[in-house]
Amino acid sequence: MKTKDMVFDLVKSLSKQEKRYFKLHALQHSADRATVSTRLFDIMDGMEVYNEVELQDFCCRQSIGGGLALAKHKLAQALLNSLDAYAAGKSIHAKITRILRQIELLYSRGQYDFCRRQITKGLKLALNYEKHGYLFELRTWQLRLIVLERAGDIGNTLRQHFRLTREELRHAAEELRYRELMHRVMQFSRRASRSLTPNDLAELDTIADESSAREIEPPPFTLQSLYWQIHGTRALLIGDAQLAYSCFRSTIELWRRNSDRIEESPSVYLRYATNFLTCCLSLKRFDEFNEILQSMQKLHLQSHPVDVHSFERIIYLDFAYCLNCGLVERGLRTARNFEDNLARHEYAIQPKRLIMLHYNCCLIYFLAGKYPEALEHCNNVLNQSFAELKQDVRAFARLLRLVILFELDAREGLEAALLATRRFVRRRVQFSFAAAVIRAMQSLLDETDRIGTQAVLSVLYRDLVDIIHDESAKEPVGLLEMLLWADSYRRDMALAELYRSVVTSGHNTRLRDLFPRDPGEH
Question: What is the reported pLDDT for 50?
Answer without folding.
Answer: 83
